[in-house]
Design goal:
mainly beta; 5-stranded antiparallel β-sheet; 24 strands; WD40_rpt
Length: about 250
């Protein structure tokens, strides 16, 4: 993904490193490695990260923070210039699935295999809300694979393990609307920048939904789809998201 000013690019690689590049020159500016020990600087920066780094994203606006998600039960907030770990967001021991900044960068929403959606303040590390999700509102846990805020931060878009996509009240966690069935295994979903529409994608199909009614407005079939639009989220299932202005 690009930094908000477009001057830097950030990627997470299969070797479990996150790397930043200067877009103009192509220079590899920083490398963040999942290793233990003191951070060191040679031609690049090495920072302490948990093993099996899955993805990394810039914070909105000034891109001063990096949000990194790994295979363990924590998400780390790093200083984008020094690599220093500023905050660690942890759950009760289950692997994290995703971590996403709110549009203004004031909050972070995470999902994990414990079946929770959690909202944190990155400035303090405090967990503001915890929502436990259930299948059909019964006692069975449904695993959220991805969650993100609407532009006004009043709603949460949540992708569940059964490929159900729901919109929840961000203050209470109450169910607001469910999207009509995509028809295939959903690999990603995202709000439009105005929060009025939702995009979902499978490996072969993209669908656009009305966020108020949950009804599908149109669908388009593609081959080997690996990129979707509307969002720049840290999503651990291998789907990269580009911003809607890049459309």
């Amino acid at each position: 993904m690009f930094s908000p000013d477009g001057q830097k690019a950030l990627i997470a690689l299969d070797d479990s490193t996150a790397r930043t590049f200067e877009v103009e020159s192509g220079l590899n500016e920083h490398i963040f490695r999942p290793q233990r020990g003191e951070a060191s600087r040679r031609m690049h920066l090495t920072s302490v990260l948990p093993p099996s780094l899955s993805c990394a994203v810039f914070s909105p606006g000034d891109a001063r923070w990096l949000l990194t998600t790994a295979s363990g039960p924590s998400v780390q907030l790093l200083d984008a210039e020094t690599g220093t770990c500023l905050r660690t967001f942890q759950n009760s021991g289950y692997a994290m699935n995703s971590a996403v900044f709110s549009p203004d960068g004031s909050r972070v929403v995470t999902t994990s295999w414990e079946g929770t959606v959690r909202i944190y303040y990155p400035a303090t590390g405090v967990c503001e809300r915890t929502f436990m999700l259930g299948c059909g509102r019964d006692q069975l846990v449904d695993i959220p694979r991805h969650a993100e805020f609407s532009a006004d931060q009043a709603r949460l878009l949540v992708l569940l393990d059964r490929s159900h996509v729901e919109i929840l009240d961000a203050e209470t966690g109450d169910f607001m609307v469910g999207l009509e069935d995509h028809g295939e295994f959903v690999v990603n979903c995202s709000f439009s920048s105005d929060g009025r529409k939702v995009l979902t994608s499978s490996l072969t199909t993209v669908r656009i939904y009305d966020a108020e009614s949950g009804k599908c407005q149109w669908a388009h079939e593609c081959e080997d789809l690996s990129t979707t639009v509307f969002s720049s989220s840290c999503f651990c299932h291998g789907v990269h998201s580009a911003r809607d202005e890049d459309n």
